[in-house]
Specification:
This protein is α+β, with helices and mostly antiparallel strands. It has helices at 88-95, 99-109, 130-134, 138-147, 165-174, 176-180, 187-193, 215-230, 243-260, 267-280, 324-339, 418-433; strands at 3-6, 16-22, 29-30, 35-40, 45-49, 54-59, 66-68, 72-77, 233-241, 286-289, 292-295, 301-303, 305-307, 310-312, 315-316, 353-356, 376-380, 384-391, 397-412. The longest helix is centred in the middle third of the chain and has 18 residues, at 243-260. It is globular.
């Protein structure tokens, strides 16, 4: 019997989802847990895995269509059963009559965007052994499928010999010919399936074109306007001598990655400094509820992630309870899952303070909009070398070349006074310039 493919419920409050992209077409072979289609909800964009191995027999719901959770959107036949791609078009037409009333009602409340999120062309997946499954993540297995790499060829540097993303990327870079060879036999199938997963973002826009917003873009637009209307935005900016941490990272980054299987980045330094300051000034981590102030017990840090198709803010829960290594692992995990559409609705809920990093693209500083219902957001500018006046212990001044970063705090002046915001940022600056914590 064919296996039904259903629209999943991505959280308790989610009642519907929009299919933005089918990654396979009727007649294509699929493996269980292989990404099959992409959906967009009012919480996250996500790739949905195949519920079974076999052949995609029928697509019942077309791209750009919004349906309720648990709706059957397609079917997968067993490997030995004949697929019926020819019936896909009539099936869509047959399902059309009962749909118009519901679709028209939804269009009034939530217009459906027909734009498609970008995807990457990939060859069909290879079978993985149970041992390989146990010592690698879905992201690593996906990269292996895309490059035709057998995980049995790779020695893992993670805990228990687990293969990390860095392990497989290093293997691919070291042995491009070895990585390319296994994928040669799969070329015909890869070419056949390529049209269903274009490598360039779609639709392409040209001057004069009018294209619909994606669901994510609509939500971003709505929330930015709501935040501007809700909070009394004020910003303060601090210049930080970041030389100590730049040198510390350069000294430890290779050993850190070898020991822990994760790259050492600058972001956990900024998050740790903010956590220390929040503990001193808890109003920064509070929010307004009517005429009351909610002081949150936990510090849940939203980490803004820029995607090719928009912006999302996954949340590092209970960040105040994590050590430096825990912060780095959590930040890396959220970023990877955001970019590979593996986030769950709970991953983007519950932030109490946000950090965003416009400096990664070269901005000197930014004036970020508060992520509601937070009361503050810290923006991290680019790290550049500049001449600074440096004062030694005897009070003598000199000019030196230093690594400098500009940090901005956007805060809700209804709740946070300027003096408090400045004292908060002064402590962040002091922590970063006099860093003493071990980085693991």
């Amino acid at each position: 019997m064919p296996t039904d493919i259903i629209m999943p419920q991505m959280g308790e409050s989610i009642v519907e989802g929009t299919i933005t992209k089918w990654l396979k077409k009727p007649g294509d072979k699929v493996q269980r847990d292989e990404p099959l289609f992409e959906i967009s909800t009012d919480k996250v964009d996500a790739e949905i895995p195949a519920p079974a191995s076999g052949v995609l027999q029928e697509i019942k719901v077309t791209e750009g269509t919004t349906v309720g959770v648990n709706t059957v959107v397609g079917t997968i036949s067993a490997d030995g059963e004949a697929a019926t791609p020819a019936k896909a078009a009539p099936a869509k037409a047959a399902s059309a009559p009962p749909a118009p009333p519901a679709k028209e009602e939804k269009k009034e409340e939530k217009p459906v965007a027909a734009a498609i999120a970008p995807a990457v062309a990939a060859p069909p997946p290879q079978e993985s052994s149970d041992d390989e499954e146990a010592r690698s993540s879905p992201l690593v297995r996906k990269i292996a499928r895309e490059h035709g790499v057998s995980l049995s060829q790779i020695s893992g540097t993670g805990l228990g010999g687990r293969i990390t993303k860095q392990d497989i990327m290093a293997f691919i870079e070291r042995a491009p010919s070895a990585a390319a060879a296994p994928s040669a036999p799969a070329a015909p199938q890869a070419a056949a399936s390529a049209p269903s997963r274009p490598s360039a973002p779609a639709p392409a826009a040209y001057p004069g074109d009018l294209v619909p917003m994606t669901n994510m873009r609509k939500i971003i637009a709505q929330r930015m306007i709501e935040s501007r209307r809700t909070s009394a935005h004020v910003h303060c900016m601090y210049e930080v001598d970041f030389t100590r941490i730049v040198n510390l990272r350069a000294k430890h980054k290779n050993g850190f990655e070898q020991r822990h299987g994760v790259r050492l980045t600058f972001m956990p330094f900024f998050v740790r400094a903010a956590l220390i300051a929040v503990q001193q000034w808890p109003i920064i981590n509070a929010s307004i509820e009517g005429d009351n102030i909610r002081y949150h017990r936990n510090i849940n840090v939203g980490i803004a992630v820029a995607l090719d198709w928009g912006l999302i803010v996954p949340v590092l829960k209970n960040a105040g309870d994590l050590n430096f290594l825990g912060l780095q692992r959590g930040i890396t995990d959220l970023g990877e899952r955001a970019r590979t559409k593996k986030l769950k609705p709970d991953d983007v809920d519950g932030s109490t303070f946000t950090v965003t990093n416009p400096g990664q693209f070269g901005a000197v500083f930014g004036l970020p909009i508060i992520n509601q219902p937070n009361s503050a957001i810290m923006g991290v500018g680019g790290i550049t070398k500049q001449p600074l006046v440096v004062t030694d212990k005897e009070g003598n001044d000199s000019i030196a070349i230093r690594s400098v970063v500009h940090l901005t705090l956007g805060y809700d002046h209804r709740l946070i006074d300027g003096a408090v915001a400045d004292q908060f940022m002064a402590l962040v600056k002091k922590t970063l310039e006099n860093w003493s914590e071990e980085v693991g």
